[in-house]
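Chapter summary example.
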Amino acid sequence: MKNAVCAYSVAFVVLLAGVGAAWAAEDMGLITGGDKGTYYQFGLDLQKLVKPQGINLTVHPSKGSVENIFAVYQRPGVQMGIVQSDVLAFVARLQSDPVLTRIAKKTKMVFPLYNEEIHLVGRKGITDFDDLTGRKVAVGREGSGTYLTSRLLFKLSEVVPAEMVYIDTSEALAELKAGRVDAMFYVAGYPVKLLKDDITDKDGLVLVPITNKSILEFYPQAEVPVGVYPWQPTPVVTAAVKAVLVSFDFRRKDCDNVGRFGQILSTHLDGLQKGGHPKWKVVDLNYPLRGWEQYDCVRKYLGKAAPAAAAPRPGQNPVFDAIRGVLDQ
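The structure predicted for these 329 residues follows.
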């Protein structure tokens, strides 16, 4: 009898231990963008998705892609980030910078996400990107993806504005409404909450087409359909970049955490497409992003075969320093 009781007790303890292990939540961090941007909304959707699966996801706002790459590389508790593909490409190609070489080597793609349209909002009378010549233009806060893309657009097109103003998008919109700047950039997947909620017909603003051939040779052409924004009466041609979910090249516990996160996202994409941000509807997790292979920890959890073989200064962000150095040449 005593042996039976002991056996039952042991079994009960083992059962409790198993239940405790199954419900042990993992803490993870995702760095996104401004709280009125698409990155942040995607982060909130992912937070809701993985919570019942035992992952407590903290969604961090940020200044954008440049900050995010460095945060994933260096900041504790931030396992993943969403970044622009042109920022990734810029970092990967700066082979002359040893810090960026290390960062590029340790940055791994979890999934490609969606096209981010380049929103150029201007005062009426500005009819195309080339009209920015001699104008005062808000190009995003230094360190943001919008900042990098805006600077590259001017480099590629050889359009020279009178002044580039380095402020974040919320402040830029306020300055545009007040007439203190002529136009502003915001790189984000439509519909952008800031532009949808904070602009009306009375503001006298327009979504400006980007049709410059030099730009469209480098960036894929896209379109913002009619009526995406209540004040936008016609479809608008623009350019786009790809939003990408990235991680650090973890080799231990967080390798499995990111892999399991990727598995949850992959198997629940249909739910996100039905109930999440509208941009989830165009997400293609299998999109072949040129120059980037999927993180092997994610491939393992997805059951995919491996593809064919093919130190930062304290208080500073070397990604931003290198980008600014190149663009200011």
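To summarize the output: The longest strand covers residues 107-123.
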